[in-house]
Amino acid sequence: MENTAEKKYRFDVTSSALKWVAIITMLIDHIGAAILEWSFVSGDYLMDSTALGVLDTVLRAIGRTAFPIFIFLMAEGFYYTRSRTNYLLRMLAFCMVSEIPFDMAFGYYHTNESDIRQNLFVPDYQNVFFTLTLGLFAIWVMNLFYERMPSVIMEIVLDVAVLCGAGYLAHFLKTDYGASGVIAIVAAHMAKRFKLKPVLSGVIIILILTLTSSVFEIAAAVIALPLLVFYHGNRGYRFNKWIFYVFYPAHLFLLALIRTVIFA
Q: What is the share, in percent, of the chain residues with pLDDT greater than 70?
């Protein structure tokens, strides 16, 4: 149901709207990554290679919007969730649920095989839920330090230790976005803690991903930052939260299936 108690704004981008933007741009990104880019690996082009390259670049650029928005929403959700423990366990569960669909969609980068049956388990690359879960765990522990440590210096030392540990684990597990993603999640959490404007949080997230992951991540600014300018903390229409969790593994499975059919 729509929250009628929320303050009204002339221009208002709600968290529900941000979730849908993140989902749609993620889907656009993964169409390029899971289907079009197999052409470059296999040499079996769906169209002229130059046109295909341009199309893929456009799709992947649009797709850069998704991860910064998901990070921003995670930092927001951490403060508003009814149970942080359940939130963390839910994320951990979807790490496992999503891994096989993730491998089926993107495992071909490592196996050089399109067929999903040959990409059911690819240990060299883990799905983004692992990155998000490690980041969520880091800010959960940091928040405990913030509430209980008597010394600011001790809190900072422990925060750095947690960040390094979570970042290293993301790097070791070879998660999507790796340590860069964990650092960006922690930065978004700190931006929320110090009550920075949403658009400034978005700038920080995108800069971290651009400097530590890929310059290509700067493309996220085109869509994400204007939306965050008009974000005022309202939730908007409340969809069933499981839609956003289930969509990730479901769309990866379908894209892998479509690729296998197209290039059969």
A: 98
Query: What would the two tokens of residue 175 be?
Result: 């998660």
How far apart CA 151 and CA 146 sit, in angstroms, is 9
Contact between residue 99 and residue 126 where contact means Cβ atoms under 8 Å apart: yes
d(CA 36, CA 262): 10
DSSP secondary structure string for all residues of 215-233: GGGGGGHHHHHHHHHT--S
In the structure, what pLDDT confidence band is assigned to residue 107 with cuts at 50, 70 and 90?
A: very high
Give the dihedral of Cα atoms 91, 94, 99, 104; nearest 10 deg: -130
In total, the chain counts a number of residues equal to 264
Distances (CA, A) of 144 to 22, 141, 162: 29, 5, 12
Which residues pair with residue 175 across a beta bridge?
126
Start-to-end C-alpha separation, the chain: 44
Contact 229, 203 (CB under 8 A): no
Residues 178/180/184/190 CA torsion (nearest 10 deg): 100
Contact 79, 136 (CB under 8 A): no
C-beta of residue 155 within 8 angstroms of C-beta of residue 201: no
- Express each pLDDT in 123-177 by its tens digit: 889 999 999 999 999 999 998 888 777 788 888 899 999 999 999 999 999 999 9
Residues 206, 217: Cα–Cα separation, whole Å: 7
